[in-house]
Amino acid sequence: MARRVAVIGAGAAGLCAARHLSARPDQFVPTVYEQTDRVGGTWVYTDRVGTDEHGLPVHSSMYKNLRTNLPKEVMAFPDFPFDSSLPSFVTHQQVLQYLEDYTDHFQLRKHIQFLTKVDTVKPVTGADPTLWEVTVSIVGEPEKTTTQQFDAVMVCNGHYSVPYIPAIPGADLFQGRTIHSHEYRTPDDFQGKNVVLLGAAASGQDIALEISTTANQVVLSHSKPPIKSQLPPNMKQAPGVECFKAPKTVRFKNGEEFEADVFMFCTGYNYHFSFLTPECQVSVQHGRITPMYKHLVHTSFPSLSIVGICCRICPFPQFDRQVLFAQAVLDGSFKLPSKEDMEEDIRRDFHRRLEAGKPPHHAHEMGEEQWEYNNELSDLIGLDPLPKAVELVYKGVHHERVNNLQRYKDGQYEITGPESWRKLE
Known about the structure:
The chain contains 8 helices and 22 strands. By secondary structure, the protein is of the alpha/beta class.
């Protein structure tokens, strides 16, 4: 009998889960719950900030002029390329259209329940194998709930919607505007302003560059090595923030001070799984989710997986491998190690990161490690690895970004073979 699988979220990860599960109707029957009225997750742009028309927190962190910081040649799902006529660095509208096309190509809409919010997920006591009780409500009518049982749950709710805002001494004294990048939409609001942005990951860098087109002065505050690339003349770098001083002074860790009209936190996001009840035994502490074998499968409840928790990755190809791995666990074609061995594997991975000097909240950060991780998942379930060319283009683009932050998105790329690529002139 086919296994019933609840998929939470119809963004890229949830759509990928639905695509692979629905491809095997003899084995799986997916039901995808999506709290908005369309697919796409974080790729659905809205001018709104705060709450949406239904009173729910706005999920998307898209800003109006966003173009991807990875080329489409490495972003695509392995079995569904982007339209080749598009430029390499596509807009958020073009990514959303790609996800719409993916949905229609694999006929996924019939599996999706839109405007349906997952309220609780909990394991059924005493069931062997574990069953899952999923309670959902109609968005806007929270009293209208229904509960169903499933054989498995794939959580695909993303992790770019709940802002992380670090505590900074003197924050209550600052009389300028404070904002998190989650609520940034256009540079028009910063006309003639002096702006400090805290955090220089990809979004911090891109937003700082965009704001510099309208702002008076922009300071990008961060604790990374200095950006080597040439920056606009009204944009400079500073160390991390030491404190705020009234009324609009920001003091940096080198003792310098700057009078800011606006302070923007580009400090990332918190993982959140408010619908998972305590019985699910999922812990989120200091940016680390446990106990997830291979950052994916629950060691005590292997029929519960969380897809897409890794960061600094090529997301769509990794989602594809994670979904196929979780699916192999469900159908029994991959036999998991013992619970003890899985938890030792988690412990080893975490301590290796700490010993390499990474902070605890980088427990799921991949970066250069993503390729080995993707290949390991593929190898464990007997799949060919993702094409080496994807990794090579990713590294080539990273080199371009480091050296030419303002113009690297003008580049056009082509994958010419499993291990070959070129930059088009």
